[in-house]
Design a protein that fits this description.
The protein folds into two domains: about 5-245, no CATH class; about 250-344, no CATH class. The strands form two sheets. Strands 1-2-3-9-8-4-7 form a seven-stranded mixed sheet, with helices on both faces. It has a two-stranded antiparallel ribbon with strand order 5-6. It has eleven helices and nine strands. Helix 6 runs parallel beside helix 7 and helix 8 (about 245-260) runs antiparallel to helix 10 (about 285-305). By secondary structure, it is α/β, with parallel strands linked by helices. It has helices spanning about 5, 60-65, 70-85, 110-120, 125-130, 145-160, 195-205, 245-260, 270-275, 285-305, 330-344, and strands at about 30-35, 100-105, 135-140, 170-175, 180, 185-190, 215, 225-230, 235-245.
C-alpha cells in the first residue's frame, strides 16, 4: 500500500504538467485533470490588489511553479486512490453510491503566484512556499450533494487520514449559518456534510497528537464548500475543495466579480465582462456593493437548492437579479457573456 512517505522517492521520475491549455493532458488517470483556472482560498481576508513593491519576481515564481509539479502529482495520485471508485461513470450520472462528478488538480501559474505574493506581502521563496497554501489545489466536484452522499466522501478522507494517505492540517467548513426560528430551533441547514462526519474527520486528524483547527464560517457572499489544507512533499501545503457542481458554476462567475471588486484585471478575452462589472470597482459605492453581496449570497443558496431538486425545473440557471440592481450584473447575463467570450 502506497503511503505519503513511500511515494516521495518517485517524484524525480515524473514529467511536468504541460501548461499549454490546448495540449492533451499527461495525466494517466481519466478522472483527474489539471484545473484550467485558479481556485480561491477564502481563508484570507485581505485580498486587495497587492503593492508591486512587495512580492517575488517572475523568475522565482516560475521556479516555485516547477517545484510544485511533483507534489501536485502526489495529490493527484492519492485522491484517485482514495476516491476513484466514488466518481461517476464516464457519460453517466452521479448517484448516492458514486456521488463525485469529477476530481481535478492544478498548479497555480507563475503569474498568479507572483501576483498573490504581492497581495500577501511575501518577500521570498520560503515565505511563499510556507504561507501560500493554494499553490497546489485539488477540487472534488460533487454531482450529488445530499448529506448521505457527501458523508461517503468525508468517511473516505477520514480513512485516508487514519492510514497516512493524507495528512490534513486544517478543516474549513464554509456555508451560510442555519436559519433559526423564534424558539431557537434550526429550520434550515446548509452544510454539505453532517456534523458527525466532520467531527470524525477532525478526530482522525487529532489522533496524530496535533490538534488541528476546524473553522465553521459564514462568509458574506454565502459561498458553500469544504476546504481542507493538506501537507504535501517538498515543503508545500495544498488545498482540497469539496464543492457541489451547482455552486461551482456560480463560483466561476463570482470569482470574476471578486477580482474586479478587488481592483484586479480579468484576462484580456473577458474585457466585455470587465466592462459589465465596472460599477463594482467603485469602492465608494457602498450601497451597490452591499446589495450585490446580498444578491450573491441568495444566489449561492439558490444554486444549492436547485442542485438538491428544491427549485422547479425550467427556471433560470442562476437566480435573477433584483430590479433595483443593474441588469448587467445578473449572473445569467454574465454567464452568457462568458460563454460568448470563451467561444470566440
Amino acid at each position: 500500500m502506497l503511503t505519503f512517505n513511500t511515494f516521495i522517492p518517485k517524484f524525480n521520475q515524473i514529467k511536468p504538467f504541460n501548461n499549454n491549455q490546448n495540449a492533451p493532458s499527461v495525466n494517466k488517470y481519466p478522472n483527474l485533470a489539471p484545473l484550467r483556472y485558479d481556485t480561491v482560498s477564502f481563508g484570507q481576508t485581505d485580498k486587495e490588489k497587492g503593492d508591486p513593491t512587495y512580492g517575488i519576481n517572475y523568475a522565482t515564481a516560475k521556479k516555485i511553479n516547477a517545484e510544485a509539479i511533483a507534489p501536485a502529482k502526489y495529490l493527484n495520485f492519492q485522491l484517485n486512490q482514495i476516491l476513484g471508485d466514488l466518481v461517476k461513470p464516464e457519460n453517466g450520472k452521479a448517484t448516492v453510491s458514486r456521488p463525485i462528478d469529477s476530481i481535478v488538480v492544478r498548479v497555480k501559474t507563475p503569474k498568479s503566484i507572483k501576483e498573490k505574493s504581492a497581495t500577501r506581502k511575501l518577500q521570498n521563496e520560503k515565505e511563499v512556499k510556507t504561507k501560500m497554501t493554494d499553490i497546489v489545489g485539488g477540487r472534488i466536484v460533487l454531482g450529488k450533494t445530499d448529506n448521505v452522499s457527501v458523508d461517503k466522501v468525508l468517511e473516505r478522507l477520514s480513512e485516508a487520514e487514519a492510514s497516512n494517505k493524507l495528512r490534513i492540517l486544517e478543516i474549513e467548513n464554509y456555508r451560510p449559518d442555519p436559519e433559526i426560528d423564534v424558539h431557537g430551533n434550526i429550520v434550515r441547514n446548509y452544510d454539505y456534510g453532517s456534523a458527525a462526519a466532520l467531527r470524525k474527520l477532525k478526530s482522525e486528524c487529532d489522533k496524530k497528537e496535533i490538534s488541528i483547527p476546524k473553522r465553521d464560517e459564514d462568509l458574506p457572499t454565502g459561498y458553500m464548500a469544504i476546504h481542507l489544507l493538506t501537507q504535501l512533499p517538498n515543503g508545500f501545503v495544498g488545498e482540497i475543495q469539496i464543492i457541489g457542481e451547482g455552486v461551482l458554476k456560480l463560483k466561476r462567475i463570482e470569482d470574476m466579480c471578486y477580482k474586479v471588486k478587488s481592483g484586479k484585471s480579468l484576462d484580456k478575452k473577458y474585457a466585455p465582462i470587465e466592462k459589465m462589472l465596472k460599477p463594482l470597482s467603485n469602492k465608494d459605492d457602498i450601497l451597490l456593493r452591499k446589495e450585490f453581496n446580498k444578491y450573491t449570497r441568495d444566489s449561492y443558496i439558490y444554486q444549492r437548492d436547485k442542485h438538491l431538486g428544491l427549485i422547479p425545473k425550467g427556471k433560470e440557471e442562476f437566480l435573477p437579479i433584483p430590479d433595483y440592481l443593474p441588469k448587467e450584473l445578473d449572473f445569467n447575463n454574465l454567464a452568457a457573456k462568458k460563454k460568448e467570450c470563451d467561444d470566440k
